[in-house]
Design brief:
Elements lengths: L1 H22 L20 E5 L2 E4 H18 L6 H26 L5 H10 L3 H4 L5 E2 L2 E2 L1 H8 L8 H21 L7 H12 L1 E10 L12 H10 L5 E2 L2 E10 L4 H20 L4 H8 L10 E6 L5 H7 L11 E2 L3 E12 L6 E11 L4 H21 L1 H7 L4 E3 L3 E2 L6 H5 L1 H9 L9 E3 L2 E11 L2 E2 L2 H33 L4 H7 L3 E9 L3 E2 L3 E2 L1 H8 L10 E2 L3 E11 L3 H34 L2 E3 L8
Antiparallel strand pairs: 1-2, 1-22, 3-4, 5-17, 5-21, 6-16, 7-12, 7-13, 7-15, 8-11, 9-10, 10-11, 14-15, 18-19, 20-21
Helix pairs in contact: 1-2, 1-7, 2-3, 4-7, 8-20, 9-17, 13-14, 17-18
């Protein structure tokens, strides 16, 4: 048994460490693979600050990641390009970190390596079954094997891994050393969630106070612009055109799934009580666990393909098969009723859904489409290229770096960096995603600083209109307060001055008012208002407010002390992560990256 464990250890260490070691340049894999010829440097797919990323290195990490993914599930068609893009991001980070380690002269001694292996084994060691007892890491077993002079575990490979991991850890420690958390910081975070108010309020939404926009002229806009420069000053921003070549199955892909669903339907028709059983066995949506049972919903809320097959069913009947873009669906209608008040039709049903993925031939065709789109987009622009091919496009709003709210950019920050560094009009590489391949073109970029009035005129007009509405809302709030203090009821004041009355339980310093949304300035004012006293008119993001604090609950010092240590540890981890991410982001901005990947890989 011990021999088997040792053999498995060799495999585990190799598979776990290979990507890490290659990424940091420890393993040189020349001659393993035969890269295609390219117009860039021979066998080099990129250069990062002049340091080459070799085809062999990249492919070894890529194959290791694919192998790791296949341990948990089958790879979807076309997902290889997504994995390849993730590996590219890993390689950039690895190269930048190893370059910084060299620049700072960070080294480790053999004794440090041995001490780390003994005292703080790598994560993959902790997960080796041979070093576990009842599913938990057994340190005694581990030390026994570590100290065994006849051990066949490849400790030299573990040492090679740790020899790279330790400098990396030292670098990270140096980068995040500035992370400090004071007791005041911890107390503020604690109170942010634990100190609570119950508030009765009058809300004066700006939409209730329209203004005559026909009377707003150019002079008014210019005056507002010059009087509020801070509202029109900001960091560099960019606006993009976005096209998506969708990764959808085609008729040939649906054929096999349709035959499978027809077979299920025939079985269910022959055995009317078997729907739940087949739903548990074959359905691929969450309701499968409950035998396909869905909650009651309005018939009108169903998607059109579903409405079409359910419309004429009687309770207990099985529908025809409904096809959507990526799936097939089968329904059993359980009941139908009409709401006595709204006259709306509600239905209850069971459902079986089978996902349909694009096959190899479909993926090849889609990739050819992407290649063709890229060639046309670089020649004629993304909009024209997409229009010719029937691909929908959209324009983003202006956004600053790190503020796009784009999940693709969050996964692949290289794309966002490109948006702020490439020339206006440039077309991006195709970016793989579960939905397909995204392509971006830079439409416009605004430099940091005060926006020229010509560019900000529309926004300035919107801000001016809003300011006039806010002024009216605040005036109404002030008048309502005066009326209440003079003896008017809250209901009468609300009706007279166009406000809504509400009560917000559990309002915390996080700044959200239940039923309204984020109102940090208003909540901040409420927390310094004595219980039982109406506030002055307060300006919020959604309009004017009056508030009366009915109850102010403060946590005890004992409660704070009980949570202080755990909260502090959580906060220091957050701050360290933020410091490291900002450091890495800055290194990426400064890095000179020469990318030759398109000479080596298809889309």
């Amino acid at each position: 048994m011990m021999q088997s464990m040792r053999d498995n250890m060799k495999i585990i260490i190799w598979l776990t460490a290979i990507a890490f070691l290659v990424g940091f340049g420890i393993l040189q894999l020349g001659g393993v693979l035969n890269p295609p010829q390219s117009s860039g440097p021979t066998g080099v797919i990129a250069k990062i600050n002049g340091e080459p990323v070799r085809y062999e290195e990249f492919m070894r990490v890529y194959q290791a990641d694919l192998a790791e993914l296949r341990k948990s599930r089958e790879l979807n068609q076309g997902e290889d390009s997504y994995v390849r893009e993730q590996v590219w991001q890993q390689m950039i980070q690895a190269k930048l970190m190893t370059q910084e380690i060299k620049r700072r002269g960070i080294t480790v001694t053999p004794d440090e390596i041995k001490t780390s292996i003994r005292m703080a084994p790598p994560q993959f060691i902790l997960e080796v079954p041979g070093f576990q007892t009842d599913g938990n890491f057994d340190y005694r077993k581990y030390l026994a094997e570590l100290d065994n002079p006849k051990s066949q575990v490849p400790w030299d490979q573990v040492e090679a891994y740790v020899a790279v991991a330790l400098p990396q850890q030292k670098l990270q420690d140096a980068i995040v050393a500035a992370a400090k958390i004071s007791e005041a910081d911890v107390r503020e975070r604690f109170l942010r969630g634990k100190e609570q108010l119950r508030v009765r309020y009058l809300h004066f939404p700006i939409d209730s106070f329209p203004v005559d926009t026909s009377r707003i002229g150019g002079a008014d806009i210019e005056t507002y612009y010059r009087s509020h420069p801070d509202e029109f000053t900001g960091p560099a921003e960019v606006r993009l055109q976005v096209g998506l070549v969708r990764r959808l199955p085609r008729d040939a892909d649906f054929s096999a799934a349709m035959e499978r669903m027809r077979g299920l339907r025939s079985e269910i028709l022959a055995q009317p009580d078997s729907f739940e059983m087949y739903a548990r066995m074959y359905s691929e949506i969450l309701s499968a666990q409950g035998g396909g049972k869905a909650p009651e919903i309005p018939y009108a809320s169903m998607r059109p393909p579903f409405q079409a097959v359910v419309k004429t069913l009687q309770p207990g009947q099985i529908s025809e098969i409904a096809r959507e873009e990526r799936s097939l669906h089968l329904f059993r209608l359980d009941g139908r009723r009409q709401d006595a008040t709204t006259k709306q039709i509600y239905i209850t049903y069971h459902e079986i859904a089978i996902r349909v993925e694009p096959g190899p031939e479909t993926i090849r065709e889609i990739r050819k489409e992407v290649d063709g789109l890229m060639a046309e987009a670089r020649k004629d622009g993304l909009t024209k290229a997409c229009t010719r091919r029937g691909i929908a496009t959209r324009e983003t709003e202006f956004f600053s770096e790190g503020k796009s709210g784009n999940s693709v950019f969050q996964r692949f920050p290289e794309t966002e960096t490109w948006a702020f560094t490439a020339k206006v009009g440039a077309v991006s590489r195709p970016v793989p995603h579960e939905n397909g391949w995204y392509v971006y073109q830079i439409l416009e970029r605004l430099p940091a600083g005060l926006r020229p009035l010509g560019q900000a005129r529309i926004f300035t007009r919107e801000r001016l209109i809003r300011s006039l509405q806010v002024a009216r809302a605040m005036d109404a709030a002030a008048q309502a307060r005066a009326a209440i203090l003079a003896g008017a009821s809250e209901a009468d004041a609300a009706k007279r001055f166009h406000s809504a009355i509400g009560t917000a339980e559990g309002t915390t310093r996080a700044g959200t008012i239940v039923g309204i949304g984020a109102e940090p300035k208003v909540v901040g004012a409420l927390f310094v208002t004595p219980v039982g006293v109406w506030t002055q008119a307060l300006e919020g993001t959604t309009g004017g407010f009056l508030g009366l604090v009915e109850e102010h609950t403060r946590p005890t010092e004992e409660e704070f002390k009980a949570e202080m240590l755990q909260l502090r540890n959580s906060m220091i981890t957050e701050r360290r992560q933020a410091l490291f991410n900002e450091w890495l982001k800055q290194r990426r901005r400064e890095a000179k990256i020469e990318d030759y990947r398109e000479n080596f890989f298809e889309v």
